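#lab-general

N.A. 3:47 PM
ok so I finally got the sequence cleaned up, no stray characters, all 465 residues accounted for. can someone with queue access submit it? mine expired

B.Y. 3:52 PM
send it over

N.A. 3:53 PM
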Amino acid sequence: MESDTIVALSTPPGEGAIGIIRMSGPRALEIALNFFLNKKKKAAKLIPRKLTFGHFVDDNDVIIDEILICYMPAPFTYTKEDIVEINVHGGITLIQLILRLLQSKGARLAEPGEFTKRAFLNGRIDLIQAESILAVIQAKSEKALKAAQRNLGGFFSESIRKMSKLIGEILTDVEADLEFYQDDLEDELTSYEEIKEKVKKLAEMIAHISEKSKSGKILRDGLKTVIGGRPNVGKSSLYNYFLGEERAIVSEIPGTTRDLLVEFVKVRGIPIEIIDTAGIHLQGEDNPIEKIGIDYSKKAIREADLIIFLLDASTGITEEDMWIYKDIINKNSGAIIFIANKIDLGNKIDENSFRSYFNGKNYIKTSIKTGEGLDLLEDEIEKLVFTGKASKDERPLMLLIRQEELIQKVRDLLQSALNSLEQGIPLDLISIDLRLVEDLLGELLGEKIKEDVLGNIFAKFCIGK
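B.Y. 4:20 PM
back already:
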């Protein structure tokens, strides 16, 4: 445990009804009692885990504020240290005064994430769970929140521990084979195949985690979705539909949208960064201002996770539509959903011709004006995110960037080890990759991690958490 006592405001800074000041460390109770008088304005003992009403006073027993105070003794606390939480009125000046008084008796102002860091260092949670606390706080949707809460409960950690146990068994087998290699060559060769099977199993486990994390990445960062197409096909109307308000100007005059319009929305609980773009058309290249908007559109399409490509069903597929698809949209590596809009005005799109023009793809018939078909669009977005399972897959795995990078390194090392095993390379050389895998899995859990890396992780937290 840490030897000093830290203090910080745990509620958001600024004016509010209540501010909660938290202290953690061996002197938390002692420091708090310097400033606490009960409702009879007398010094009093605090009953553990019970809220007690009283007054916060200064060194001269002048009342600063009416408070509720709670003392929670170690080790059954968030940090596994003594904790005192003081509920005060949420004024900026008042909270700053109380923090200064607590610091005057020996409390130190906490660094960002230091309470959670102490919970990790004191063994209450592992590093994956610690990072999941930040993911819970930053969750953009209920699905993201559920995924983060599963990791906080140990869902991801348990998977990593199983893999750590398996890599430990593999390395034990390798060491045994190296030690007894010259005594029994036949047994060594049999064990070589067993080791290969275990490494293969481990590679499959890590690949499964990587696949499940794809939908989790979208829950974490949001699905970057661009609405594209030629002018007047309904791009801004669809953008307004997703937002639930008239945010983009809708007009029959071409070129109404000149800049990118960007908002975050939720579709079926999935966070989406929705982007309305300027209509792309050949004549627009002649207008300098419109050309800038079209260039923005092209750039947004190149960077999109999903492109919703709008066509006008009432006019049919035009040469401009095919040019946009071939030269711009089809060069993007993201997913594409084709929308034939304005079916309330008729549908001149022949399905066979459509498939021949657009590489056998299908399209969704909609009328953004009447709302027809928009539920099918939302269905398709949900299926894309959850690999076709839609609402059945309620357990996506949400990893943070650090975790994604470590998982990818583990995958690469295991693939390298498998390739070496297939080639019959000696185990002492293969063990180098396997030991690195063991280290990386330990780094995920925080068992083997450098202090500077640890500092960077908790620096992303707010002060007081």
